[in-house]
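User: My collaborator sent over this chain with a note saying "see what the structure looks like." That's all I know about it. Can you take a look?
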Amino acid sequence: MPASIDSSHQSVLLRELSNASVWEQGEDLEALWSASTATHRLIAESCDGSLGINAIILPLDEAIETRLDAARQFWRALNGRSPGSVYGALPQQTKIRHILNLRAHDARRAAASYRMIAEVLLSRDPIVPRDWRDHHLRHRVRAILRRADRLISGGYRDLLFYPHSRCPKSDL
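Assistant: Without extra context I'll predict from the sequence alone. Here is the result:
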């Protein structure tokens, strides 16, 4: 919102931001500001010729949480603070699971047996061939390879939208 709306709020003058590129685009002002940790893109209404802003308007859509986090990071950068944790970052356990899935997939493509995959990726001890038929890791390797197949056949795209889903939820 234009900085002239309310003087009780702190205003950010776009032209005074260091490393900021500001230009007019129709009736709006656009700015790219390279802060120490990220580049922020801002669009401001310039109804009175003001080059400052004192509020952020965010649409209430499915990406509101991501937009709120971007606004939070912008505010922190303006005040010289670190950006903090990023909303939507994959949890460490999920990253480890995806790495295991892809390693198992690569091993299968390299013609490794399920038992060899289990020995290398999941076990510290060799698995005796006679024990393999009833071994608990046999079922785990099969489950890992099923997840890897889903990931390879297009499920990896969901990682680009995490924590949002590509498919809209049913209304039920």
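A starting point for your reply to your collaborator: The chain has six helices and five strands.
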